[in-house]
């Protein structure tokens, strides 16, 4: 699907007293991190958490079997009192449950869905229903983020106003030029793994924002090359790079993103695309919530503005 051509349904803002649902459609939660993040979110929003979710212990790499995880998500979608959904954790598993969840449920009762990493698959699924989602922190990450990122997420759910000019200036990654398009924030591995599925994202006329964790530079190269060979990079307006956490040549060494960033710069130059880096997005110490599919403008010096809100 091409986010630039989607006639977006923008969900209503979360109002005081509205419920925000929390579900775990991917990997099993780590209870201590989850409870810490849940307490932080509960200071700002009224939450609905499925019975027993906070006590689930890691067993394998999934937070329940496929039907259980799909049913938990579906229950949030059909509950009229739940006005937004925040994913508990990323990891792995969402692509397994997407065929089991009816996207017309979201289209009939639009509500913003928040997540990143593995949850990019869920954001793409929401885009298939034409409903704008939010690329932002999962619950288990909130305890590791500054309060400003928490309040930014809450504001994105509750305030229809566009973000406008962002404080964090982007840094040029090779040759740049001013660009404008729709913002498609995505984990790079998930973006590549969605190719050929019903939820494939096409960054035609879009500004792609990528982040990654734990992939060596050659794997970053492989994923970007895969996207180009699949024809998905040819119409992009430009690429913004967020965190490249532990994307090092030698696992366990210093967490230096220089080599991975150099790979991205080389690939973008080969694709003829302008690039920027240092977006406060991803698995690192910052994860700024951003509206999926919103209009974005970036000037040549790296100033960027978001022109659409995530809610109305």
Give an account of the 3D structure.
With 312 residues, the protein is an alpha/beta fold. It folds into 2 domains: 3-158, Murein tetrapeptidase LD-carboxypeptidase, N-terminal domain (Rossmann fold, 3-Layer(aba) Sandwich), CATH 3.40.50.10740; 164-306, LD-carboxypeptidase A C-terminal domain-like (Glucose Oxidase, domain 1). Helix content is 29%, strand content 19%. It has 9 helices and 14 strands. Strands 6-14-13-8-9-10-11-7 form an 8-stranded mixed beta sheet. Helix 7 links the parallel strand 8 and strand 9 (206-213). Helix 8 (217-229) packs parallel to helix 9 (258-271). The protein is globular and about 50 Å long. The chain starts with 18 loop residues before the first strand and ends in a 6-residue tail after the last strand. The mean pLDDT is 96.
Share of helical residues = 25-40%
Overall geometry comes to globular
Beta fraction: 15-25%
* Uncertain regions spanning at least 5 consecutive residues: none
The CATH topology assignment of the largest domain is Rossmann fold
Count of DSSP H/I helices? 9
Mean pLDDT, to the nearest integer, reads: 96
Q: Count the strands?
A: 14
Structural class of the helix and strand makeup? alpha/beta
Q: Can you summarize the main beta sheet?
A: 8 strands, mixed
Number of domains: 2
What is the annotated CATH architecture of the largest domain?
A: 3-Layer(aba) Sandwich
Sequence of strands across the biggest β-sheet: 6-14-13-8-9-10-11-7
Gyration radius, in Å: 18 Å
Question: Kindly, what is the distance between the CA atoms of the first and last residues, rounded to a whole number of angstroms?
Answer: 23 Å
Spell out the CATH superfamily of the largest domain: Murein tetrapeptidase LD-carboxypeptidase, N-terminal domain
Tell me the name of the CATH class of the largest domain: Alpha Beta
Order of helices and strands: EHEHEHHEHEHEEEHEHEHEEEE
């Amino acid at each position: 699907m091409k986010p630039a051509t989607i006639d977006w349904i923008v969900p209503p803002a979360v109002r005081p007293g509205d419920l925000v649902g929390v579900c775990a459609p991917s990997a099993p939660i780590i209870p201590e991190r989850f409870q810490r993040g849940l307490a932080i979110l509960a200071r700002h929003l009224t939450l609905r958490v499925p019975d027993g979710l906070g006590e689930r212990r890691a067993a394998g790499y999934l937070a329940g079997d496929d039907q259980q995880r799909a049913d938990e998500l579906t229950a949030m979608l059909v509950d009229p009192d739940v006005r937004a959904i925040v994913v508990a954790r990323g990891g792995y598993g969402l692509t397994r449950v997407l065929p089991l969840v009816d996207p017309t449920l979201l289209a009939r009762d639009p509500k913003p869905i928040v997540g990143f990493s593995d949850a990019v698959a869920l954001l793409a699924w929401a885009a298939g229903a034409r409903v704008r989602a939010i690329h932002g922190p999962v619950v288990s990450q909130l305890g590791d983020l500054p309060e400003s990122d928490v309040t930014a997420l809450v504001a994105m759910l509750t305030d229809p106003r566009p973000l406008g000019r962002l404080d964090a200036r982007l840094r040029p990654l090779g040759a740049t030029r001013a660009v404008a398009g729709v913002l498609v924030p995505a984990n790079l591995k998930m973006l590549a793994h969605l190719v050929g599925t019903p939820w494939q994202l096409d960054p035609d006329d879009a500004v792609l924002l990528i982040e990654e964790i734990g992939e060596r530079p050659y794997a970053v190269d492989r994923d970007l090359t895969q996207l180009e060979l699949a024809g998905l990079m040819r119409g992009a307006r430009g690429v913004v790079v967020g965190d490249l956490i532990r994307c090092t040549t030698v696992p366990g060494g210093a967490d230096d993103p220089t080599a991975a960033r150099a790979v991205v710069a080389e690939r973008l130059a080969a694709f003829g695309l302008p690039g920027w880096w240092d977006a406060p997005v991803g698995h690192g110490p910052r994860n700024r919530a951003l509206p999926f599919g919103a209009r974005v403008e970036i000037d040549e010096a790296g100033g960027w503005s978001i022109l659409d809100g995530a809610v109305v």
